[in-house]
Known about the structure:
Layout: E1 11-14, E2 21-23, H1 25-30, E3 41-47, E4 50-58, E5 61-64, E6 67-70, E7 73-77, E8 91-94, H2 95-111
Parallel strand pairs: 1-8, 2-7
Antiparallel strand pairs: 2-8, 3-4, 4-7, 5-6
Amino acid sequence: xxxxxxxxxxxxxxxxxxxxxxxxxxxxxxxxxxxxxxxxxxxxxxxxxxxxxxxxxxxxxxxxxxxxxxxxxxxxxxxxxxxxxxxxxxxxxxxxxxxxxxxxxxxxxxxxxxxxxxxxxxxxx
Length: 125
């Protein structure tokens, strides 16, 4: 984000969330996010729990392990109750990031000869 050093934190992975990244209000408040220089759109959204209030902007980059996406849209929740107001995580990483990062790693492996990150294997129980 413009004028903000990278912040390492714990995020939930939500494969059903139609977003790249949602940042919860307590984390935003603690780290003074979004920065004043960021262009924002105030936009009501929707979730399994109903309508949500948020401010939408773009990050310079989201990095999670070997995956990164440049200029992704991100959502700053304005919710003061419920999941989007949780203090135990900074926010959530949604399906759009998961889809895009897997797609980019596959292209890099096939076109540029980079090694493709291995997805975790799960055993049946």
